[in-house]
Amino acid sequence: MTLNQLRRLIARLCADPTTRSVDLQTRNLTRGEIAEARWLAVVLMRSDLFSTCPLRPEHFQHQTHFDIFRAMLQMQSRRIRCNDLPELLARLDVAGYPEESALEMLSEVLHCRGQIKNFEDYTATLEKRFQAHQAAELTLPNSELVRLDTAGGASPFQTLTTAELIAQQEPLQWLAPGIFVQNEPAVIVGPSKSMKSSIAVDLCAALASGGSFLGQFTADRPFRVGYVSRHDERQALSDLAGRWSEAGGVDSSKLPNLIWSLLVADAADPAHLDQLRDWIRGNELEVVVIDAVRLTSTGKQSQAKQLCDLVGCCKAAGATPILCCQSRKAIPRGATLATDVATSLDFARQWMLLQRRETYSPGSGQHRLRLTYGGCAGQGGEWGVDIDEGKLEDPQGRSWQITLRDVESIEVEAAANAAAAHDQRLQTKIHATLTHVEATQATKSRIREQCGINGSRFAAAWDRLLALGKIKPMESSERKTERAPIYRWIDRSSPPEKNEAVRSAPDVDIGRRVRCADQEKCVSV
Questions:
Q1: Is residue 284 over pLDDT 50?
Q2: 349: nearest Cα among 359, 339, 357, 364
Q3: Which of 224, 379, 392, 496 lies deepest, with the highest CB count within 10 Å?
C-alpha cells in the first residue's frame, strides 16, 4: 500500500457511500474494536466530524486505534485536519510506526468499511462500552474483579472485567439465519462425491442473490460472495450455476455479487496468499467459499497448515471463509462436529457434514444425502436432502431441484431400505439354493436346510416369494411319487414354456374402437 493508493481508496469510499460493510474480524480484532476502526474510517473520509466528537483516547482499546486517535488529537490541537495523510504518517512514525506499517494500518481501518451515516451509532457504541467499564470499576472493589485476558491489538494482553465482557457482547450477525454466522470460519465436509461442491455453489448463489439456501435458509441480505476453485472446474461450475439460476428464476446477468476465481495455481501456496488477499479486498467480498479439495495437498500435516493459512488470509481481508474439505473416510453416523471427522478442522467455528443416504445410481440424476450442521453460536440440526439433477436426455436438459426432508421421514425410509435389502439377501440365498439343488429334491424343507436361513425368517421370505410369483409348486401331473410339493424358480425373463398360453394380441374391450386400414368400426366380442 502506497500513499497514493491510500488516497484513492479514501476517495472511492467517499464517492460510494452505499458500499456494503465488510467485517475485519481477524484473530486479534474483537467486534467492539471493529466499531473503533469504523469510527476512525469515517473521520478519515470526513475530517469535519472529528471536531464534534466527545470521545477521548480512553475510548479506544485496540493499541493501534488508540495511537491513531491520539495522533489525530495532536493534529487537531494545531488546527491540522485529521485526514492530512502526510502529517498523520509523520506523527505515527514518531509513535513508533514506520511509514509502510502505518499505511497498512490505515488501510486495515478503511477496509472495515465504516459508513458515514452510521457515525453516531459508532460513537454511541464506544461511549456505552466506556461507561460500562467505568461502572464496573466503581461498583466492584479491585479484590472482587474477575478478569479475562485475551489476545488483542498490538499489546500482548487485553484485560476485561466480567461486566465489560458482557457489555461488549453484540447480537449475532447472520449470513443465513439458523445455519451460518458472519465472521466465523466454516467448513463443508464429506467423503468423495458427496455433492460438496454442488451444495457450496447453491450456498454462494443464495447468499449473493439474497435467496434461500436449499430452499429453507433465507439469506439475511444479498452479500458480496467469491467462489475459488481450479480452472479445470469451469465447465462443471458454469453448468451448475446455470441450472441453479433457472431453477430459482434468477437472471444470472443481474447477479453481480457473485464473483468466480478459477485458479491455475495453488491458492494455499504462501507465494499466492497475498494475491488472494488483494483479490478479496479488490472485489470487496464479504464471503469467500474455497473448494479446498482441489486447491490443497493431500498430506495430513501440510493440508492442515494450508487450510489454516487460507482461513487466516480470508479473515485478514475482511471476509467470512467457508472451505469445502474432503473426509478421508465415511462420516460416522453419530458425528455432529467437524472435529469428529478430522482434527485438522479444529479451526472451524461452524460446519456442515454431508454423506449419502443411498448409493448413487449412475445416470439417474437422483442423489439422496444426509446433512448435519452446527456451530459455536448454538445452531444445529439434521436434514435429508434429495437432489434431482435430471438426465441429459430429458427434453429440458439437466436441472437442479432440491427437497428437504425431516429426520423422522429419512429414518423411516432408512429402516424400510434396510428391511428391503435384508429381504433381498434372503431371496438371493433361496434362489441360489433352488438353482443348485436337484430338481426332484427341491422341497420346501430341503431348501430351508440347505440355504442356512432360520425358520421364522425363512418362512417370511418364502411366503413373500410365493406371493410375488417368483416360486411355485410343480403341477401334480409332472411328478408321480413325491408327497411333498416340489418347487421351482420362475424366471420371468425366459421365454414361456410350451404348456403356458401365449397371447398373440391384446384383449379387446367390448365396444372398443379399432382403427383399420380402410375404415373405423366398432368390434363387439
A1: yes
A2: 339
A3: 224
Q: Report the alpha-carbon distance of residue 224 to residue 283 in Å, rounded.
A: 8
- Residue 321's pLDDT band, with cuts at 50, 70 and 90, is very high
Q: Is residue 225 a contact partner of residue 257, using CB atoms and an 8 Å limit?
A: yes
User: What is the CA angle 307-358-364, rounded to 5?
Assistant: 100
Write down all domains in the chain, each with its CATH number in brackets.
3-167 (1.10.860.10), 174-405 (3.40.50.300), 414-489 (1.10.10)
125-149 burial code (b ≥16 CB/10 A, e <16): bbeebbebbeebeeeeeeeeeeeee
Which residues of 249-319 form beta strands (DSSP E)? Answer: 258-263, 287-290
Is 307:301 a contact under the CB 8 Å cutoff?
A: no
Helix residue ranges per DSSP H, 335-406: none
Residue 423: CA atoms inside 13 Å, Cβ hemisphere, count? 14
pLDDT score for 415: 86
In the chain, the percentage of residues whose pLDDT exceeds 90 is 21
pLDDT at 260: 92
CA distance 402 to 385: 7
Q: Which H helix or E strand runs over 513?
A: strand 513-515
In the chain, % helix, strand, coil (3-state, to 5) comes to: 45, 15, 40
Cα radius of gyration (the chain) = 34
Helix (H, G, I), strand (E, B) or coil at 322: strand
Q: What contacts 239, CB < 8 A, 6 or more positions away?
A: 398
pLDDT tens per residue, range 493-510: 544 444 444 444 444 343
Task: Count the neighbouring beta carbons within 10 Å of the beta carbon of residue 243.
Answer: 19
Amino acid at the residue 276: L
Side-chain-side CA neighbours of 432 within 13 Å: the count stands at 10
Q: What percent of the chain has pLDDT over 70?
A: 78
Q: Are 110 and 127 in contact (CB under 8 A)?
A: no
Q: Do 68 and 105 contact (CB within 8 A), yes or no?
A: yes
Cell 472495515 maps to which residue?
112
DSSP bridge partners of 444: none
For the residues 463-473, what does the mean pLDDT come to?
88
Out of 20-24, 380-384, 412-416, least confident range: 20-24
Determine the Cα angle at 19 with ends 102 and 123, to 5°: 65
Relative to beta strand 258-263, strand 225-230 is parallel
Looking at mean pLDDT, say which of 115-119, 163-167, 384-388 comes out highest. Answer: 384-388
Cut 0.70: pTM above it? no
Identify the sign of the CA torsion 282, 285, 291, 292. positive
- The DSSP-derived string for 383-394 is EEEEEE---TTS
Task: Give the confidence band of 136 by pLDDT, cuts at 50, 70, 90.
Answer: low
**Cβ–Cβ under 8 Å, residues 288 and 256:** no
Amino acid 371: pLDDT? 93
